[in-house]
Design a protein that fits this description.
This protein has helices at 2-9, 59-72, 87-103, 111-121, 127-136, 194-197, 202-216, 220-232, 268-279, 308-314, 328-340, 353-362, and strands spanning 167-170, 184-190, 235-239, 245-255, 258-259, 285-291, 297-303, 306-307, 319-320. With 368 residues, the protein is an alpha+beta fold. This is TNase-like domain-containing protein.
């Protein structure tokens, strides 16, 4: 880290100049119940809340923070007003930035160079958080922002996708409450995904930052209002397995080529339960072919190396939707289930879901 110290003063020897002044530590906050110079360290632990002030934002502030992080593993307390991820995540960020700084030649001295350092080191974090940390140091936003290849989508390069597939979604784990019936569900995609990050509107980023600041100031009414606005815009806050809150885009999915009994129909609950067992709590890959008349994304679903529609048809939990899908293997999988009297085919004459919906609509009951 000697190179960081040189950046504060240049290559010349300035004698008694301080490289890191204790006064800048105010940005890390005071530990609750401690006094200056007495008792525990006056700097908060990364997991403790504290009030903080930030007198200035610039390249020198970034370098000071990196120097202090190297010796204490503490991050600036005021950063939480600009980003949404946890302190634990922030520690990982500064570790990555510090490593990138030590490997960078020459070291950054201008705002543009410092911004490039951060965006390169943090290319895999959420776009909103990346913009937040650049804003925290008052650094310019490089254009275009760097993107990384998605490891999940690398298994399905464009050349190997079936004809008609418009794009691929790699989702967060599907919550069982987001599964409506045996052929439809809602899924969320992390906005850190390269495909998503480029499509998040600036207004959404601003709502996320405003909500974080509202919660910091205990203005929970405003925070709830902003959360509703995010939901109306098609986004939500999701807690991942690491306990970090992330921004995710919501997609309503209609499984292509099958039609399952509606929940109100005979065998509707069993069909839904079968889909919950296949994808509930798991990440899925969706090959999207387009939108249906209700605004749902129609696609083929893959989970744990299983083609979900195939499993639903073979187990007798859905019909082949011949009106919209002519794939012969789908017809064959349905015939197998019929012959073995599996699932809904245990009945001699199960009601067809499209007939049931037609009857509901004729009675002015809205169904999808």
């Amino acid at each position: 880290m000697g190179n960081i110290l040189k950046c504060f003063t240049g290559e010349d020897d300035h004698g008694d100049d301080d490289y890191y002044r204790p006064s800048s530590g105010a940005r890390y906050g005071l530990q609750a119940g401690s006094d200056h110079g007495h008792g525990p360290s006056p700097y908060v632990d990364v997991d403790q809340p504290a009030a903080a002030s930030r007198p200035h934002h610039d390249v020198v502030s970034l370098l000071q923070d990196l120097l202090y992080f190297e010796s204490t593993s503490m991050v600036p307390e005021a950063l939480r007003q600009h980003v949404t991820s946890s302190k634990k995540a922030q520690v990982k960020w500064y570790r990555n930035i510090l490593e990138a700084y030590n490997n960078m030649r020459p070291q950054p001295k201008t705002p543009e160079e410092a911004a490039q350092l951060i965006t390169t080191a943090l290319s895999r974090i959420q776009r909103a958080d990346l913009l937040g940390i650049l804003s925290f140091y008052n650094l310019p936003i490089p254009f275009p922002l760097p993107t990384v290849a998605s490891s999940a989508s690398s298994d399905h390069p464009p050349s190997s996708l079936p004809e008609g597939v418009q794009f691929v979604l790699n989702t967060l784990p599907v919550h069982h409450r987001c599964i409506g019936d045996g052929d439809g569900f809602s899924a969320y995609v992390d906005t850190a995904d390269p495909r998503e990050s480029a499509n998040v509107a600036l207004e959404v980023h601003e709502m996320v930052i405003d909500r974080t600041q509202a919660r910091t100031h205990r203005d929970y009414q405003k925070a709830r209002a902003l959360l509703r606005s995010l939901d109306e815009a098609g986004y939500n806050r999701i807690i991942n397995i690491s306990g970090e809150e992330i921004l995710a885009k919501k997609y309503r999915i209609r499984m292509r080529g099958i039609d399952a009994p509606e929940l109100e129909m005979t065998y509707g609950k069993e069909s839904k339960d079968a889909l919950v067992k296949l994808i509930g709590g798991k990440r899925v890959t969706i090959h999207v072919y387009g939108l249906d008349q209700f605004g749902r994304y129609v696609g083929d679903i893959y989970c744990d190396n299983v083609f979900v529609q195939e499993r639903m048809l073979k187990s007798g939990h859905a019909w082949h939707f011949k009106t919209y899908d002519k794939r012969p293997e789908f017809a064959q999988w349905e015939r197998e289930a019929r012959a073995a009297h599996r699932g809904l085919w245990a009945s001699d004459n199960p009601e067809k879901p499209w007939d049931w919906r037609r009857e509901q609509r004729s009675s002015n009951i809205q169904v999808y």
